[in-house]
Write a structure and sequence with these properties.
Elements (H helix, E strand, L loop, with lengths): L1 H8 L6 H21 L5 H25 L7 H26 L5 H14 L8
Helix pairs in contact: 1-3, 2-3, 2-5
Length: 126
Amino acid sequence: MLTFILTFESAGWYRRPFYAVATGVMAPVTCALITISIGVALWWQLAIHLATLFIVCMLCHGELARSKPSPRYLTAFYLTIAAGGALGGVFVALIAPRVFIEYSEYPIGLALACALGLWDGSEPAR
């Protein structure tokens, strides 16, 4: 929620190049940490996972804030965000436990965040 507030409050909090690169660095580090976690102190694991979560959420919410439409369409925009949150909650609570037999949604989500960081979001030339 903090990253949502920061990115929608002011454009000054979100610097796309920084968060795109930071996501590209932290996501593989976090995936490697999942594999070798037995040899890493709990405090380091917690710090790395929380830092990664903050960076990835800043990237995702920052891109969402960048795509905010003109005031005329804001109601539909925020309703769509709310509907997406509800559908995501249904997916996480009901579908994911039955589809994923191992702990794989976290690395998949990190990979998708890296792809978002690589995508420039500009319209194709016509």
